[in-house]
Amino acid sequence: MTSVKEQEAIRKLMDFLQEWDSAHKVARSHILNNFIKSNDGKTEPELELEFAQGASLFLARLTAWLRMTYMYSTCLNKLLKSIGIFLSAASGRRYLIEFLEIGGVLILLEILGLNRLKEEDKRECVKLLQLVANAGRKYKELICESYGVRSLTNFLATSNSAEAQEDVQVLLDSLGRGNPKYQNQVYKGLIAVLPCACPRAQQLALQTLVVMQDVVGEAPAVLVEPVLGTLCSVHLDVQYEAIQLLKALMARQVRPALLKALVALLTPPREKAFTFCDETAKDPTTLCPREPMLVYIQQAAAAKAIGVLAKESAEVAEELIQLKVVHGLMVAVGNLDHAASQRHASISLEYFVRTFPFVEECVKAVLGHTLFQCFLDSPETWYTKMDPVKAEELVSNIVDSPRDVARMQSAEG
């Protein structure tokens, strides 16, 4: 027989559940507020004690209401936080299983795709999904089997909340670890984020790809274009993360394709290099400075990346020379329309000049003794003294011919 104390606890539970069942939205919102304040951080035994061993009865009501109302944002944030108290409860694995049995993962993923819902509500969904993923490999697989990677990467690319995006990054990183069946799916999902218009999403995707590279091993060839595409970004933090990923990829089979494409970015088509501002387009008589297109931003970033990669590995530096990088860097140095291209290309070119006598000979022949000495003395600023004639000579240079490379190889040998 149950004791008087136990009977009283059961009566209170039944009264509470009856109050919930008969309450409308405002009253339920108040109940949720009280529940969150009183139970946040509690363990499974503590929740069971609070609910007279019937906590699952309240969780079932929460999940049922979520299933019926999530599309209309009815107390959604409080509802998700309340469910989170159950899912995060220590020793509360059965709460997680009960939530999953009613299709909880699918509901959370669907919420992420609803445009009319608030970012803060979607962030709570991501937090709940993280709790699911933290439960182990089979739960990570469940999220991925439910098209979770697509939903999460879409949300990462379109979210307006930096905090929510960071939460998504943590979750995707979790899904990419200890989940061999779906780690490549996560990796490719992150690659799909790179062409998006959100710099923060690009940065976070690149960071996660770097971390995942050792787990995944070889990188697919489809990675080349989107990664190099991020070098167009005007945001230096995105460029930085892209270069970090390029460094990680130098040990992979995709290296030759990446280096070839990087060198090609140093010589963009000149006729496509500029765009006029809107005022000029509307009125040709309006004086308005030309703005460099993304190809010049990409040229400058490629020149910077080439210097970083060459300094990391002598083998990579020699491969770049075979790909005619010296010619490309000199073209970029001669780009009077974009100082950043000149600066980064000059700094990278200095490394090749000081490392390979053949390159020093070729560059000195093009620049002439006086300008070459200025270059060596101050590679970061010397190009400001360059006149248009000399710049054109650099752009038109023909170093790196097969004969020149052969000379370099014989000299090095």
Q: What is the total tally of β strands?
A: 2
Mean of pLDDT: 90
Rg over C-alpha atoms, rounded to the nearest angstrom: 30 Å
Structural class: mainly alpha
Low-confidence stretches: 273-282, 284-290
Most strands sheet: 2 strands, antiparallel
Strand order of the largest sheet: 1-2
Helix content: over 70%
N-to-C order of helices and strands: HHHHHHHHHHHHHHHHEHEHHHHHHHH
Bulk shape: elongated
Distance between the termini: 94 Å
Query: Helix count?
Result: 25
Characterize the quaternary organization of these chains: single chain
Report the β-strand fraction as a percent range.
Answer: under 5%
Pfam families: DUF5578 (PF17741)
InterPro entries: ARM-like, ARM-type_fold, DUF5578
Organism: Cepphus grylle
Protein name: ARMD1 protein
Can you characterise this structure?
The protein has 413 residues and is mostly helical. It has a domain at 229-267 and 290-412. 71% of the residues lie in helices and 1% in strands. The chain has 25 helices and two strands. It has helices spanning 4-22, 25-39, 44-50, 55-69, 76-87, 93-101, 104-112, 119-133, 137-145, 148-158, 162-175, 183-193, 199-216, 224-229, 236-249, 255-264, 278-282, 294-312, 314-322, 325-333, 339-355, 357-367, 369-377, 388-395, 402-412, and strands at 274-275, 291-292. It has a two-stranded antiparallel sheet with strand order 1-2. The longest helix has 19 residues, at 4-22. It starts with a helix and ends with a helix. The relative contact order is 0.05. The model is unreliable at 273-282 and 284-290 (pLDDT under 50). This is ARMD1 protein. It comes from Cepphus grylle (Black guillemot). Pfam families: DUF5578.
